[in-house]
Amino acid sequence: MARWEPGTPGRLQEAALELFATRGYEQTTAAEIAQSVGLTERTFFRHFSDKREALFHGQDQLVAAFLDGAAAAPPGAPALDVVAAALRGATGFFPDERRPRARVRQTVIEANPALAERERHKLASIATTLADALRERGVGDLAATLAAESGLTVFRIAFAQWIRDGEERSLADIAVGVLRELAAVAGEVGEAITRRADGSPRAGALQARQGQ
Amino acid sequence: MARWEPGTPGRLQEAALELFATRGYEQTTAAEIAQSVGLTERTFFRHFSDKREALFHGQDQLVAAFLDGAAAAPPGAPALDVVAAALRGATGFFPDERRPRARVRQTVIEANPALAERERHKLASIATTLADALRERGVGDLAATLAAESGLTVFRIAFAQWIRDGEERSLADIAVGVLRELAAVAGEVGEAITRRADGSPRAGALQARQGQ
User: Fold this and answer.
1) pLDDT of A123 above 80
2) CA gap A51, A36 in Å, rounded
3) CA nearest neighbour of B109 among B99, B120, B98, B100
4) Of B16, B25, B3, residue with least CA distance to B44
């Protein structure tokens, strides 16, 4: 699995993050980022299409980490188990030594609505990709979407907890806990959901109807 | 529960939607929207801060529909049952006669990334509000977040299905089906999730650890 990337792109990303955090994202130019590590603006644009991408570079590797994780689940595993495996892959992408950097990055992102949107869009597109992977494994259309969306919700909540002040558990441990809690919440279903309008007990109604 | 709003704001919204759909969102001005129904630009801006808000007016009523629904759940109901009740409230906001309009609105939104983002942000903020309502009912912090996020995921998936060509079921019926499928997906949890690292069986580990 790909980890932290050394070399020029990595140096530019570190420099970008530091300047965004200290001067502000809007107030920082690509040229300044490059100059702060003794490189030229032209070099910057050889690696990133714009300054924003210096914050989002690595998304492909994160997607691959989710998919590699999912691929490690045994054939025929229930959808949520595949998602658990995908989360193991994804959380392995964030060892504890990346936590300080992740905290700074989150602060920069939360200070800028356009960046927060880019981050939301990134997670949404990972959910779509993961749902496709589940479908390719034979998971039903709706179940694949729900499991993948739930997986990304778990990832988002776990990540927010991981970078909270004072949190010391690994991202992987937190994610397992959140996923368990999701299973508990969704499992604790009372009459209101399982009862059908005609009073008959629950059946696998939707999948049959979806296929019509 | 508030329904379709007649009068000037409603006329302006209808006119905006029609122009956005036929001419394109970017190509339509607030003045043109107002003129198309014999009103002035000044009147438009008395009701909406900008043309985008003509598409998103009514969000407060949708939030209220979720919350009113949740409030109707009996005290002590499991979190996902409260979410089911909230979904009943929210789906009541979209009777079948609104389906054609919802289809046109979705087409406009999907054609414009900034509008799609505004829509995602709307749903995310409803999830936050619903999670707060769950906490006020005594649902644990993490369970409240997970249940509310899951509820909005169900709403989003059900809504997309409701406006699909040829779909004739009500939004409420579709949402119940999607929620049931979520319960089934999350309930079908195998060894991978429930087994702890030391091999001991599942316990309510996370809630205890979250409280530390």
Assistant:
1) yes
2) 14
3) B120
4) B16
Which region, left, alpha or beta, applies to residue A170 given φ > 0 means left and ψ of -120 to 50 means alpha? beta
Is-above-0.95 flag for pTM?
no
* Cβ pair A194:B186 closer than 8 A: no
The answer to whether residue B208 neighbours chain A at the CB level (below 8 Å) is no
Q: Which of residues 61-80 of B touch A (CB under 8 A)?
A: 73, 77-80
Q: Render pLDDT for A53-76 as a digit per residue (tens, 0 to 9).
A: 999 988 899 999 999 999 999 999
Question: ipTM of this complex > 0.85?
Answer: no
Please write down the HEC assignment for all residues of B129-145.
Answer: HHHHHHHHCCCCHHHHH
Q: Looking at the complex, does the CB of residue B117 fall below 8 Å from at least one CB of chain A?
A: yes
Provide the token pair at B56. Answer: 């998103």
B24 backbone φψ class: left, alpha, beta (φ>0; ψ -120 to 50): left
Q: Measure the CA–CA gap between A17 and A33, rounded to whole angstroms.
A: 9
Rounded Cα gap, residues A145 and A131, in angstroms? 5
Largest CA distance in chain A: 72
Q: Is A42 helix (H, G, I), strand (E, B) or coil?
A: helix
Give A26: exposed, middle or buried? Use CB within 10 Å, 0-12, 13-18, 19+.
exposed
List C-alpha distances in Å: A211 to A140, A141, A169, A198. Answer: 10, 10, 43, 22
More confident residue, B50 or A5: B50
- In which residue are the tokens 């409803």 written? B126
* CA within 13 Å, CB half, B165: 1
Q: Which of A25, A142, A147 is nearest to B192 (CA)?
A: A147
**Confidence class of residue B23 from pLDDT cuts 50, 70 and 90?**
very high
Residues B40, B17: Cα–Cα separation, whole Å: 17
Measure in Å the smallest separation between the Cα of B141 and chain A Cα atoms.
11
Nearest to A147 among B80, B84, B185 (CB): B185
Q: According to the 3-state scheme, what is the secondary structure of B71-134?
A: HCCCCCCCHHHHHHHHHHHHHCCCCHHHHHHHHHHHHHHHCCHHHHHHHHHHHHHHHHHHHHHH
